[in-house]
Specification:
Strands 3-4-2-5 form a 4-stranded antiparallel sheet. The chain has 2 domains: 212 residues, Multidrug efflux transporter AcrB transmembrane fold, CATH 1.20.1640.10; 82 residues, 2-Layer Sandwich (Alpha-Beta Plaits), CATH 3.30.70. A hairpin with a 5-residue loop joins strand 3 and strand 4. It has 10 helices and 6 strands. It is α+β, with helices and mostly antiparallel strands. The chain is elongated and about 80 Å long. The C terminus is likely disordered. Helix 6 packs antiparallel against helix 7, helix 6 packs antiparallel against helix 9 and helix 8 runs antiparallel to helix 9.
Length: 322
């Protein structure tokens, strides 16, 4: 039985020759992502801004203006409405935290909102609710940022001690790029950004570092094996050798994620969309950003004397390289 090969044997794609174009594209995308975050902001969920979130399902998509007027009559504070899903039948209603300090204050607010909506929209059905205090939301923001920063720094330090400092710097740059692309995507689409998305970002970092470490390890092996070879050739050789593994891993994960995107419902849509984006961005940064950046950082294989064992084989291998 023949094995399925998504990448043919002896593939020799010139990745390094495109590194300047890749660096330019990476810089443009990073700037665009940062600009989107500052210009449009993130649609922070209740986890981060505090307050009360109520989801209502309707048989037919309601008029948001009319729904806002119904909730405004209760005088509960600023009302934020957002359509959830593609059919427009599920509406997320975000309200400030209840002013009352009573234990059942949240339940009273939810009951009042439901009664007012059901009176005007008899087909409305309660879906779910979330409530987070302002103090807790502030702690969640800080802990979420801290988790991402510690993950990036820890991975960079690991790469420095495991390989060389150039590997650590290139890995950190690539991971920061992946995180900024994810934030830019959520600023553009205005998907709700909550703790689930923080988990997705950390998962993307884990996937990216897994791919980068495999390529970096192969680069280091080839630096020892072909010490007379130029660094661009070593990087191209290493990326091409690991390309079948990279493509197969990405494709199998994407199959699971697309199934989750289609059948997982709107609750998991933001998380799944972030993961799908992270697979594409992480694979791109592993090949074009992290690996090629090693050349710009001055990484070189140590020269080897001609009379040492294996030098003849290395010269033959170097000669055979295109």
């Amino acid at each position: 039985m023949r094995l399925l090969k998504l990448v043919p044997d002896n593939t020799n794609l010139p990745f390094v020759s495109l590194r300047k174009w890749a660096f330019g594209l990476t810089i443009l995308l990073t700037i665009a992502a940062v600009a989107l975050v500052f210009a449009r902001g993130l649609n922070l969920g209740v986890d981060f801004v505090g307050g009360l979130m109520i989801e209502e399902k309707f048989q037919t998509p309601p008029s948001t203006d009319k729904l806002r007027q119904v909730v405004d009559r209760l005088q509960l504070g600023e009302v934020r409405l957002q359509s959830v899903g593609t059919d427009g039948k599920t509406i997320s209603i975000k309200l400030p935290p209840p002013k009352s300090t009573e234990e059942d204050a949240t339940n009273k607010v939810v009951a009042a909102v439901q009664a007012a909506i059901n009176k005007e929209f008899p087909d409305a059905r309660f879906s779910k609710q979330d409530a987070v205090s302002g103090k807790v939301s502030g702690e969640l923001i800080w802990k979420g940022i801290l988790a991402v920063v510690l993950a990036v720094v820890g991975i960079g330090l690991f790469a420095i001690f495991r390989f060389e400092w150039q590997f650590g710097v290139s890995t950190m740059v690539a991971i920061v790029h992946d995180v900024l692309m994810t934030l830019g995507f959520f600023a553009l689409t205005q998907f709700e950004f909550d703790l689930n998305i923080v988990a997705a970002v950390l998962t993307i970092i884990g996937y990216s570092i897994n791919d980068k470490i495999v390529i970096d390890d192969r680069i280091r092996e080839n630096m020892r094996r072909y010490r007379k070879m130029d660094m661009p050739q070593i990087v191209d050789l290493s990326v091409n050798e690991t390309l079948p593994r990279t493509v197969m891993t990405s494709v199998t994960i994407l199959l699971a994620l697309f199934a989750l995107l289609i059948f997982g419902g709107h609750v998991l849509r933001g998380f799944t969309a972030a993961m799908i984006l992270g697979i594409f961005v992480g694979t791109y940064s592993s090949i074009y950003v992290s690996s090629s950046l090693l050349i710009s950082l001055g990484l070189r294989a140590e020269p080897k004397s001609d009379d040492t064992p294996g030098s003849k084989a290395e010269r033959v291998a170097y000669k055979d390289m295109p």
